[in-house]
User: Which sequence fits this backbone?
């Protein structure tokens, strides 16, 4: 059972790495990370490249959030690989998501993206954080 679980976690990590190593993800996340605090939803929607990047990142993290909820991908794997990225993306896009929900009259918009960010904050066991990178947290690692 332990070996099967470990193999499943390794496959999940591989799938997560494949998702983030695509050029579209990298370009989109670069744009999302560069969003200034206080950027309004109308400013996001006025820039077609940024709008597409926001939609892409939110959609990918929405899917990943549901995959964690359904226990297809372990939370600790997502936390270690993408925890900081998920936290930053949620911080940058929260206002836009809330705007979309209000406009749609539904709390369903990007619900699993928000859920994922909240679960990472709530259950994180990663030694890394937004202020402590893997290069420091795992400095003494040995093969």
Assistant:
């Amino acid at each position: 059972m332990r070996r099967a679980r470990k193999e499943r976690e390794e496959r999940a990590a591989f799938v997560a790495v494949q998702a983030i190593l695509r050029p579209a993800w990298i370009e989109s996340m670069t744009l999302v990370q560069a969003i200034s605090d206080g950027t309004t939803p109308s400013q996001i929607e006025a820039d077609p490249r940024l709008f597409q990047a926001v939609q892409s990142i939110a959609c990918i993290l929405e899917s990943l959030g549901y995959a964690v909820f359904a226990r297809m991908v372990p939370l600790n794997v997502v936390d270690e690989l993408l925890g900081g990225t998920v936290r930053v993306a949620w911080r940058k896009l929260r206002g836009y998501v809330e705007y979309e929900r209000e406009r749609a009259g539904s709390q369903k918009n990007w619900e699993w993206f928000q859920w994922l960010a909240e679960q990472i904050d709530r259950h994180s066991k990663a030694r890394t954080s937004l202020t402590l990178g893997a290069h420091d947290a795992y400095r003494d690692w040995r093969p």
The chain has one domain: 2-137. The chain has a mean pLDDT of 88.
